[in-house]
Design goal:
Blueprint: E1 10-14, E2 18-26, E3 32-41, E4 47-48, E5 51-52, H1 55-68, E6 75-80, E7 85-93, H2 97-109, E8 119-128, E9 133-142, H3 143-155, E10 159-165, H4 166-175, E11 184-190, E12 195-201, E13 204-211, H5 215-226, H6 230-237, H7 247-275, E14 283-287, H8 296-304, E15 307-310, E16 317-318, H9 326-332, H10 337-343
Parallel strand pairs: 1-6, 3-16, 6-10, 11-14, 14-15
Antiparallel strand pairs: 1-2, 2-3, 4-5, 7-9, 8-9, 11-12, 12-13
Length: 349
């Protein structure tokens, strides 16, 4: 999951509400140039709770994105999250790479709540302990979910060459643009139906969790309050005008939903602090389409009393303003974090 010059993949983030595509060109000094960045909205019935319900709608949107942007690169990378993804840090007796490769499936069976034959496994050794043990990061994803998402890429005429996990794709985007040395940083990626949380401590990922809370809950709250169709509620959520509904009325509804999101995040942070040797949080970085809701940063700052920022995955990526509108880049940046994190990857890495 997890040549000559290695070939970049096209980052393809198929989310519940939109498809995001990013292609990067490597430059010297580990820098990148933006080649393509585009978004296509998906109808709500296409993907529900992370499961593709109508693949034809997804394939149509992806094919259109590829065509309209003239994307020639055939190598695509995708990403997954939610209840079909399991991430665990496990401790094993120290062993060689060969021994680990032979025993990992048996070891993983003890930690994976699915039939081991129904998942794809990947792992990486994090560190070797002082007492003849080593920490191993284990990732398991249900095979049918992988097949559903890679099939969409194949039907759109491209080759899926890697599948990542959202929390680590966001981490790639963050690390290419920011430093977290000496800090404890929560990367909070708010999608339409899932919130991905990845806590970094002194530059290392130490905690992961997916929470079933996303931007759809904001939309639904606006729908209920003002008795509106989903399309109008979505427009109001993002700061647009609909009928006689005032900005103040909408902000009140959104702030209430943000308090609910903050409470969910608080539970996760409290659990992390209670079960680790880290006793503080220094910064929260927000990404995903749900991060763009008005006043969310202020609500989280008030609750956690730490710096809260929108993650800009294009911060250190060069682009020509004649090719990309800076306003479009700035407006869509937080929602593009997973796609950028995937686009940093190369074939076979």
């Amino acid at each position: 999951m997890f040549g000559k010059r290695k070939r970049q993949v096209v980052g393809c983030d198929v989310g519940s509400s939109a498809i995001k595509i990013v292609e990067l060109k490597p430059l010297k000094n580990d820098e990148f140039q933006l080649v393509h960045a585009a978004v296509a909205d998906l109808s709500p019935e296409a993907i529900v709770d992370g499961a593709i319900m109508d693949s034809s709608l997804v394939v149509e949107a992806l094919t259109r994105l590829i065509s309209e942007n003239g994307i020639k690169n055939s190598k695509f990378g995708g990403s997954l999250s939610g209840h079909s993804v399991i991430i665990k840090k496990i401790q094993l007796p120290s062993m060689t790479e060969t021994e680990l490769a032979e025993s990992i499936q048996w070891e993983a069976e003890q930690y994976i709540p699915f039939d081991i034959n129904d998942v794809n496994l990947d792992y990486v050794v994090l560190e070797t302990g002082a007492s003849d043990t080593m920490d191993v990061l284990l990732v398991a994803v249900k095979r049918d979910r992988i097949n559903d998402y890679t099939s969409v890429i194949v039907q759109a005429g491209k080759e899926p060459v890697l599948v990542d996990v959202d929390v680590f794709a966001v981490q790639n985007a963050f690390e290419s643009n920011y430093s977290s040395r000496g800090e404890t940083v929560a990367l909070v990626n708010i999608g339409a139906s899932v919130m991905n949380i990845n806590v970094l401590h002194d530059g290392n990922s130490v905690f992961w969790r997916d929470v079933a809370f996303g931007g759809n809950l904001y939309t639904e709250a606006v729908q209920r309050e003002f008795n509106l169709p989903r399309e109008d509620a979505e427009k109001l959520k993002l700061g647009g005008d609909v009928g006689q509904v005032s900005k103040q009325q909408v902000e009140s509804v959104l702030s209430s939903a943000s308090e609910d999101l903050a409470a969910e995040l608080q539970k996760t942070v409290d659990f992390f602090v209670a079960t680790s040797s880290v006793d503080r949080l220094d910064r929260i970085m927000l990404s995903g389409g749900g991060a763009l809701v008005a006043n969310l940063e202020a609500v989280l700052h008030e609750r956690f009393q730490v710096n809260v920022e929108l993650l800009n995955p294009f911060r250190n990526i060069r682009y020509n303003e004649s090719d990309f509108d800076p306003d479009w880049i700035n407006r869509n940046a937080p929602a593009m974090a997973v796609a950028v994190g995937l686009a940093i990857r190369t074939v076979g890495d």
